[in-house]
């Protein structure tokens, strides 16, 4: 049986111009009037495999009358557009969750939000997360950003609560980015972090479901793991790298939409969620992935790549002309590696004199021809092209 009581809830607001992409978080006070929180209650299992600790498929008809009837706690204002079930747009089953905010909504804990949150007492050092998102055409491009999924940290006693989440899915300017923050400081008094990294995941797909699977082992040291699949393609693979703060408790998952400041273009935000699952460290991709999603292609991944403005002669197994490229954590450094033209990027027409930022699909070839490459590269998107 669930136990209900009030706790201090972290809220988010925009930060200073010197760090305008950061997302600050601030504790609420005892004068807040939000209904009783169940963020510390016991998990409500739905008969799923033992490794799953939470499931929300939005099939419970009680959610029509009581948005708190599911496994997650809903943070929203009491307005018809804030949250409801939708039977026309759904990933699987009969309905999905529709989350909405409007520019003229009253602020809730420092911003405009409609989010569901994991019970804080169920957070673990390592977990698997699966969910589906749907952005309709009305989700127009806007310069000010939103959070549409976050792993919300739990500051220790004595720490500042005005702190950005360690991991978040952010939308802005019609693009999706993943934000990662980490810090080894035991008791933090500010929102600065030792590490901050953004990963551009491309343009926001509209009018289609995006299936996500996320595997996180939280750590503020070089023992962390972050793996992210987007529509069956691995888009982030950070092994033995920090990805969170030095806290006693681990982050809890929140999903929906949160906007800390409105721009001049958008006046509302609507996003749909379905097939939300959280598994423990013994769970897997297969257990948490959205039902109906395509099977994971294990030999395929999507990577960010920078291409330099000039080529070099290269020797080795194959002699010829090489591009100079950066992948992964090499991006942004002074180090470049040779990329043989024989391993060309399909769909990419290189023009000397420009530095390119690319998103590339990288696939291992199981049985390459004699003398051929064991890796196939295909252009997904040209993110940037700057003359040098």
From TrEMBL:
It comes from Salegentibacter salegens. Residues 307-385 form the DUF4377 domain. PROSITE patterns: PROKAR_LIPOPROTEIN (PS51257). InterPro entries: ConA-like_dom_sf (IPR013320), DUF4377 (IPR025485), Polysacc_lyase (IPR025975). GO terms for biological process: carbohydrate metabolic process. SUPFAM superfamilies: Concanavalin A-like lectins/glucanases. One of its GO terms (molecular function) is hydrolase activity, hydrolyzing O-glycosyl compounds. This is DUF4377 domain-containing protein.
